[in-house]
Amino acid sequence: MSEKLFESETSRCIIIGASHAGISVAFALRQFGWKGNIDVFDALSCFPHQKPPLSKDFLNGRLDESMLKLRAPKAYEKARVTLHLGERVLRINRTEKTVATEKVKWEYDKLILATGAEALIPPIKGIKEATNLFTIRHLPDSEKLKSCIDGFTKKSENPNVVVVGAGYIGLEAAASLRKMWAEVTIIERESRVLQRVTAPLLSDYFTSLHVTNGVKIFTSKTVDSIETNDGQQSVICEDGTEYVADIVIVGVGTKINQALAADAGLRVDDGIYVNDQCQTSDENIYAIGDCTEHHSSIYQRTVRLESVQNAMDQANVVAMHLTGKEAVYDKLPWFWSDQYDRKLQIVGLLNGYNDIVVREDKNNPKSISVWYFDGDDLLAVDAINQPKSYSIGMRILSQNLKVDKLALASIEALLKPENIVLTREDAS
User: Fold this and answer.
1) Which pLDDT tens digit goes with each residue over 123-152?
2) CB-CB neighbours of 44 under 10 Å
C-alpha cells in the first residue's frame, strides 16, 4: 500500500491565519495523525490569542495578556507547529501549489485559509485623521485602547467615549468601559440596538440595561463626519447633532478577508464558499472560520458565521478529513455575549422568524429567554441568565423536535423537555 499524504513526514500543510480557526486546525492535524510539516502564517506579529475577551475582561483589566494565549509557546514546539508571525501571504498560485510572502515562496500539499475578517472602517469624512479612534478586533487594538483609557485614569479623568455601532462588540465595549468609569455614549444607525440579531423585546431589554448603568444611547443616527482638534473628536451626525469625544470606538461590522481566495480564482460570495468538508472549489485548499460561507443542512440556506465555536468545529472537520477520517460539518450555530452581570447565550439563527415565545423568571428579573419560531418550527433561542433554556433549546434544535408553544409560554410550567416537546403523534 502506498503511503498516504498525511503519513508522509515530507508533506506540508500551510495555514494562513493564526487565530482560533488556524491554531485549532494546526493542533487538530497533529492530534489526528498528520506527520508532515505544519506552517502557520499571520500578518500580525503578536502571539496567537483569544478574541472574545478583548472587548470584555482584557479591556477592563480582569485578564492580562499572558492569559489570552491560545496555546503556550512550548506547545507549538512540542507539536511541531511552526509559526511565521508578521509574515503576510501575498498570493496563492494554485497551479504551482505555492504561496508567496514578501520574503519567500512556499510549496504546499494542502492549504488552509483561516483568514478571518477585519473590523469595518466606514467611509466617514475625517475618520482617517481622528487620533483616539479605535476598533476592537485584535490584541493590538485592545491594547492601544486600554492604554489610552489608562492615560486618562492616571490623570484622575473619566474620558468621554463615543461608541459608533450598537452591535455586540459596541455593547460589550460600553459595558467594560463603564466598569472603568468612562462616560459612554452609543450612536446607532438603526432604529434599535442589535436590530439585525434580536427581537425588539430584547433590544429594549439591552437598551434599558445600558441606560440603567449610565450609558447614553441614541438610535436612528447616521454619522456624517468626525472632526479632530487637539486630540479631541467631534462626531457629527447627518441630522446635525454633535457628540464630543476623547475616544471614539467604531464597531459597525466586519470586512471578510477573502481577497487572497478571490485573486486565486476560488469561489467567493459573502465569504469563501466551502462544502461540508470545508473544501473550497479547489480540492487541495480548505477554508475555515469567519471568512467562510457554507450551506446549512439545518436551515437549508447558505450562511456565514462569526463565532469561536464555528471556527473550532470547522477546524476539526478539516483535520479529520485530511487524515483520512470521515467528517461532515453540520453543527448547530451558537454564540454568547457578556454585558455587566448578564450572560446572553444564543443557539440557532433567528432569520425568518414570525413568532416569539418569551419566558421570564418571576423570581429573577435579570433572567429571560426568547424563543424564535417560523410557524411551529423553532429557529433559535436567546437566553439571558437562563442556561437551562439555552441547553434545552440546543437539544430541541439539534434533534429537530417540535415544541408545544402554549406549554412553553406557560410561566407556571416547569421548563423540562417532557413538558414542552410534542410527541410524534401530537406533532402530526
Assistant:
1) 999 999 999 999 999 999 999 999 999 999
2) 17
